[in-house]
Sequence to fold (239 residues):
Amino acid sequence: MKCIKVFLAGLLLAVSISAYADDASNVLYGKMEEIAQRGNSEAQYHLGMMLNNGIGVTKNPREAYEWFEKSADAGDPLAAYKVGCYLAGQFGVIPINLEKALKFKLIAAEAGYALAQHDVAIIYFQHKEPEKAIRWWQAAGSQGDPMSLYNLSVLFKDGKSVPADSMRAYSYFKLAQLSSRGSINSNAQSALNQLKKTMSPEELEKAELLVVNWKAQPTLLTNMAADGQKRAKMLVDGG
Fold:
């Protein structure tokens, strides 16, 4: 009987916290909408994200896109990225236009947003422009984007679009593993082990040294995107 009471107390506490969080999100949405309506481009971006993700409001991708578009037109690079995502087919609420999608994602990539840089690299790789793809994967990878680092590893391991380079393939793979906090599937790990066997002791030492001395350097814009909800609250609080 005692265990049941403890369980119920925990359940009631969880419901109470959840309801409070929902109320807080609703208030945040209302205040953000007021600021966005006054033409604040950052608020317009945050409002778009809240509608995009259903934070404090029912998800509404079409309305989210409209706010992203307004914010992007005012020069917000994170909003430009989201416009690019919608133009590439996200949610399917507007006609797909891959040329315009690349244009908008490039705005965010050039402003330093890692996720946009990764996406742009994929587009260029699909267009058979490996040099441009490498440039953008390296830009995103330097910020610690694990998928960009992994893609670089595969590129230099396979040697199909660029000359094979075991040392670079190995170091990029290790960095991807590090950036993803060690989460990696068994097939990928097996590929790394096989690659290691093909390397000379000198190559392995150099590759390991690169990994040890490496440190992710996310840009201000990438950090801003990661801290989106925190920045949204600061904006409505006047911080």
Notes: The CA atoms of residues 88 and 98 lie 5 Å apart.
